[in-house]
Amino acid sequence: MAYPKTKLPLDFRTDYASLVSKPMNSPRSNAKINVFIADDSLIVREHLVTMIEELAGIEIVGQAENVAEAISAIRILKPDAVILDILMPGGSGFKVLQNIKQAGAGPMVIILTNYPYPVFRQKCLQAGADFFLDKSTEFDQIPELFERFRGTKVSQAEDPQWVVRSIIPAR
What we know:
Blueprint (H helix, E strand, L loop, with lengths): L15 H6 L11 E6 L3 H12 L4 E7 L2 H11 L3 E4 L2 E2 L2 E2 H9 L6 E6 L4 H9 L4 E4 H4 L3 H11 L9 H6 L4
Parallel strand pairs: 1-2, 1-3, 3-6, 6-7
Antiparallel strand pairs: 4-5
């Protein structure tokens, strides 16, 4: 199934009130993990969609290719998890990360980047990212991360860096 990069799901208009009133990271009645992808590369987004669609209980709720689209859609859709690139048109993934984490715990955030420099990693983790992955060497860890997230459902408010410590060693 192809997902439009900027368009919201077809049922969005009919379910707007319930989407807006639901706090971020709240339990979903259908127990699915709703995922949003923000990356400027169409190839990366398509690869992520293909990979995630194979996982039971996980659903892609939207995509964005730039910062403005990402911030807007994440505020409206309130996904459980966001896969976020650092460098995107219209700003950076840092801006998106800060925006979605400023109001509290927010969704689980996986930074997926071609720029895995220690300074970027530190900045992202300090800003509230739960994971920091190198696109070229750690892309295949994403299914495992979602399996752990689904199995644990640990509140980020209780331990914001729970997954970083358990899966990704300090470099």
